[in-house]
Design a protein that fits this description.
Helix content: 25-40%
Strand content: 5-15%
Largest sheet: 7 strands, parallel
Distance between the termini: 37 Å
CATH class of the largest domain: Alpha Beta
Strand order of the largest sheet: 3-2-1-4-5-7-12
Radius of gyration: 20 Å
CATH topology of the largest domain: Rossmann fold
Bound molecules: NADP nicotinamide-adenine-dinucleotide phosphate
Order of helices and strands: EHEHHEEHEEHEEHEEEHEHEHEHHHEHHH
CATH superfamily of the largest domain: NAD(P)-binding Rossmann-like Domain
Number of helices: 15
Length: 369
């Protein structure tokens, strides 16, 4: 029997992998680090999140307050003395401030708290694996490349946002300063939607595509590629990494790779088909920040009620990522036995259906916490 400690189970990736493991609870005892005032409140928030993945109520009811470890990575000393940590065999560390905004907790949680937590787990004698969920963007990739896992970049000025810099920094600290930790770093590329439930679990990043195509303008070329995977694929890969052999000290992309990544033109066609519209196609314009800013006055009429300044800032940030035109090599993951990911355009219609009643401003809030 494994005792698996999962952090971030109230979030998108952590929720998806918790759902997978809950279905195999005969082999796994789950301990879930959740923020909250009490185990009962933490449990209730966790169950509400897992329900978004279509989990049956009777399965949700198998979770009890015994599965909950109340704790906040901003104050790790308040939970690291809990003796239940000493019986953990596997860690899936999905928690982070995953925000492109200027959240004052990014460094405190993603670097300081995460490193303190990893140091504590390094003292657990029966720990077999510590999977840290990083991000493929932690290498600050060079534009127009096929990126391998060998790269990492911890220079602040090479990162578009503090979030990716924080993720790069903690990876380096854990690898260099905790050599005994049975560490596997999983680096997902861009996780958008769920293959069956679309954006019901989370609309994270999907709104960027909707926004760009509604405007008919963005900072990338239409034939630029984007490496997107659905959250259930990411969860299956994380589950595989829990028990995969010979992966200690490895860094592994969870990505679409060359064969399953898609172009913006393909996304345009799939989005149009799912929405009953005509693709933007030839009328699409690649623009720079100044040209985007000139469209600001049209944002509210196109996107619904929104703060135009915040929307422009979001478009600029995500626009910089979009024009990288990078694909993250997935050979290592495929060699471990994972099948290739489905393409974003194969399940995008579920994302359209599940977000049709929400405005852009409502959808984007999840990425600017
Ligand atoms: N989504 C992507 O496209 C993507 C791509 C690459 C890598 N990743 C990585 O995947 C991981 C999960 O991202 P996500 O998209 O699932 O983000 P998410 O939906 O925002 O979930 C973040 C999770 O972390 C928890 N958390 C945040 N601050 C915490 C703290 N101080 N103490 C304890 N828990 C805390 C949140 O708990 P609360 O519910 O209490 O807020 C939530 O459960 C992150 O490490 C991210 O860097 C994501």
């Amino acid at each position: 029997m494994n005792t698996i400690l999962i952090t971030g189970a109230t979030g998108f990736l952590g929720g998806a992998v918790t759902v997978n493991l809950l279905k195999k609870s005969e082999n796994n005892r789950l301990l879930l680090l959740v923020r909250g005032d009490s185990p009962a409140e933490g449990l209730s928030r966790l169950q509400s999140n897992l329900a978004k993945f279509g989990v049956a109520q009777n399965l949700l009811d198998t979770l009890t307050t015994d599965n909950i470890l109340i704790g906040d990575l901003a104050e790790p000393e308040r939970f690291t003395a809990d003796p239940r940590l000493d019986s953990v065999t596997h860690v899936l560390n999905c928690a982070a401030v995953a925000s492109f905004g200027a959240n004052p907790y990014i460094w405190k949680v993603n670097v300081e708290g995460t490193f303190t937590f990893a140091s504590r787990m390094n003292q657990v004698s029966g720990l077999k694996r510590f999977i840290h969920v990083g991000t493929a963007m932690s290498c600050a990739p060079e534009a127009n490349t096929l990126v391998t896992e060998s790269k990492l970049n911890t220079l602040r000025d090479q990162h578009i946002v503090e979030y990716t810099w924080s993720k790069a920094t903690v990876e380096k600290m854990m690898s260099e300063m905790l050599p005994e930790l049975p560490l596997v770093i999983a680096r997902p590329s861009i996780v958008v939607g769920h293959s069956d439930h679309g954006c019901t679990p989370s609309p994270s990043i999907f709104w960027v595509f909707r926004m760009a195509l509604t405007l008919g303008k963005f900072m990338c070329e239409l034939d630029d590629r984007i490496d997107v995977v659905p959250v259930d694929y990411c969860a299956d890969a994380l589950e595989l990494l829990l028990t995969a052999e010979n992966v200690d000290k490895s860094i592994i992309h969870i990505s679409a790779g060359l064969n399953s990544s898609v172009t913006f033109a393909e996304i345009d066609k799939a989005m149009a088909k799912a929405s009953g519209n005509v693709p933007v196609g030839k009328s699409y314009q690649k623009v720079n920040y100044r040209e985007l800013a000139e469209s600001k006055k049209n944002f509210a009429s196109l996107f619904g009620p929104c703060n135009e300044r915040i929307v422009l800032r979001a478009m600029n940030l995500y626009g910089h990522f979009s024009k990288l035109n990078v694909v993250f090599c997935n050979e290592k993951l495929l060699e471990l036995g994972m099948p290739p990911s489905s393409k974003f355009t194969d399940y995008l219609h579920h994302c359209v259906t599940s977000t049709q009643d929400s405005t852009i401003a409502e959808l984007m809030a999840v990425d600017f916490k």
